[in-house]
Amino acid sequence: MNKAFKALNDHTRREILELLKQKDMSAGEIADHFNMGKPSISHHLDLLKQAELVNSEKQGQFVIYSLSTTVIDDLLAWMINLKTKKP
What we know:
The chain has helices at 2-8, 11-22, 27-31, 38-50, 70-83; strands at residues 25-26, 54-59, 62-67.
């Protein structure tokens, strides 16, 4: 969960997640939306993968990234549980 919080603490990574919410994309397609080099985008994608917020799948010569909501579901459940007071 710590890796997810760290990954979500960056504006660029949150924007990448918003893009992947719309559709699965290659690293190049994602990079086209930003004013930074592809190595920087690859670094952000690697951190998102480590946090299990995105999945990647090799398709031919491309790696396609997709949003993974499992960790987000876990985070939300934890936050709701944290907010709920016990008698």
